[in-house]
Structures are given as structure tokens and as C-alpha cells.
Amino acid sequence: MPWGTTSPPISSPDTVAVERLGKRIEQDKEKSSEQVDIFPVGIESVSTQNAIETNSLTKRFGPVTAIEGIDLTVRSGEVFGLLGPNGAGKSTVIDLVLGLTTPTEGRALVFGTDVANNPRAVRRRIGVLPDDYAMYDGMTGREHLRSILRLKGADDDPEDLRDRVGLDDEAFDRPAGDYSKGMRQRLALATALAGDPDLLILDEPSSGLDPGGIALVRELVGELSERETTVFFSSHRLAEVEAVCDRIGIVNDGRLVSVQGVDGLTDQASDSERLQLLTDESPDADCLERVRSVNAVERVRVDEQTLTVDCLAPEVKADVIELVNRSVSVRDFELEERNLEDVFDAIVERDRSATPQQNAVVTGGDPK
Question: pLDDT tens-digit profile of 63-91?
């Protein structure tokens, strides 16, 4: 069960279950030995090569396009966050990087190896925490870790891995079927860390964790970054990736719409302000359209008699007030700085306001 998702749970913690799993492990190892060398001639060292590269990566499921034309580079040793709303295509990107599905178009490379051509060689260098990790309910946490270590041919101490993820000793020797969601997430994280992978992929890692568990994940990612392990981090929570990532890619409706450093997003937030105007009546559509056409105005929203405008330059605030005042009377106004969440929302909203034809292509609809 290399990825924790291929076998049904075992109902009782007996030796037969362990023997069955052991046979599966040996079979996988035999198959793995038939593959080409994990580090074939011509592949550069981890420290001098991009960890992940995708070129025009596209995946369609029948008429629906899950992701389209993803061109992404994750540098070796960096912590990269893939951010987007639920259903944006983040998990599809991860599945393609892991070789769990094949691209319709384009390709994905991991440390220079084409994933579709040699998925086993790629996976041997990756630790992964999937969004929904299935376990053998009848096996203890210790048995899960020992099995994964055998499969990876690693000699890590299970107790050390348990300590790193904060799983208590008593729970470690209980069947995983008795675990809470947070405990399962900690055990899954321990299996991802097993074997000291060159690349760690975390898909929604804070799911089910309490605040202490979330802080632990951040601490672990920081430690791995210091050791120059590449971390590819997927989440729909901006605060989660902001706290640990060097760069952030934003995905929306299957497209990569932005890639920049956290500092770049922070600069966008600090350089912009949110202007709220209280008017004597609700502005009409023509007024809103004129405001949207002003340079350095990013988002315009109206709620009855309150008009909210995100301004990317200080000088446009007066222009906006004057423009609105021509249509309706401005009774009062307020200013507030935007935060990173506002910047993220604006990028996603700007992408969603693309032409209907662009959106139809991405969602698999008919671009009429």
C-alpha cells in the first residue's frame, strides 16, 4: 500500500493481516527492482536541479477539463505552496506529479525524470501525505510504520517518526481503526517522512488537525526546509501556505493564474487600500462600470448603499470618490488596508471574470 489508498481495510489486528501486507510489500519490491535505476545517468543532483517541472500539463476526464496548460517550476530545496479554492485542480496536479494518473497533454518531470515514463523511480524519492489517507483499521500505528519502512527499504526508527509527528506512545500501539481523524493525519504524516524523501508532497496537511497539530506541521516544514528538502504544499487556506512557503502558485478553475513570492503578495497588500463609500442610494450599473474602468482599481462591489472599491494606488481614491459623486451623493467614506486574503480573493475573482469562452474551455462546457 505505497500510497495508502489501494487496499481495503483489515477488520482485525491479527498476524494473517500482517503476513498479507508483507507479501504485498515483497511483490512491490520485486516489481520495483525491474525498473531502471532510480538515479539514471544524466540526472543531476537534487541540489542543482528543479524538483518539479510541468510543461503544458493538461488532464481531461471525458468532456471535463480538470487542469489545462499548467507550466510550473518548483526549485530544489524550496517550500512551494499551491493555493486555490476547493475543486480548483490542486489534487489533480499532485496525482499527475505522483504518476497516479497520466496527462492528456503535456508532461511532468520530477528531478528530471518524466513521471509518465518512470513513475516508480520518481515515487522512490517522494514522501506524500494525501488528502484522504486510507489505513488498515486492524493494524496498529507501529505496524503501519514498520510496513512502510520495509517497502521503502529505509532504516528509520519508528519511535523517532512517532515523536516527530506528536503521536503519543499509547496510541502508537492501538489499532488505527480507533484513531480520530487528527491521529490518522499524524500517522499519515509519519509515513510520508519515512525514508527521508528528497521531495515531500503535502495535500491539505492541516485537515483534521487541532491548532497544536497545525503548528507541528509548520515546525516540521521549517526543519525540512533547513535541510534543503523540497516541500510541495497544497491548501485552500492562504494563512496556511503564507506561514511556511517561499513562493505561492494560485490555481483557479484548472488554470495556474499567478506564481509569486510571499513577499510579492505582501507588497500587493501593503500597497493597496480598501475604500468604502456610503451613498444616499445604490449606485447604478453605469456608475459601477465607470469605477471599474479606472486604472489601479481592482475590485468593485456594492451592497445596497455601500460601495467597496479596492485601490492599488493612493491617488485613485480621490478619483473614485469624485466619479461616484457624479451619480449619487457620497455621505461618508472609510479606508482600511487589505490583507493577503483580500489579495488572493482579488486574483481569483479577476480570473473568474475572464470571457465566457475561456471559462467554457476550462470547465469542459460548450464555448458558445
Answer: 999 999 999 999 999 999 998 888 889 99
Tell whether 23 is covered by a domain: no
Q: How many domains does the chain have?
A: 2
For 6, 27, 61, 148, 267, the CA distances from 32, given in Å and listed in that order, are: 17, 9, 29, 15, 47
Q: Give the DSSP letter string of 319-335.
A: HHHHHHHTTS-EEEEEE
Cα–Cα distance for residue pair 242/250, rounded to 1 Å: 12
Same domain, 257 and 282: no
Q: In a 3-state reduction of DSSP, which class is residue 200?
A: strand
Domain membership flag for residue 6? no
- Find all residues with CB under 8 Å of 137, minimum gap 6, and list them: 9, 10, 11, 175, 176, 177
At 145, list the grid cell. Answer: 510504520
We report the CATH number of the domain holding residue 294 as 3.30.70.2470
pTM over 0.85? The answer is no
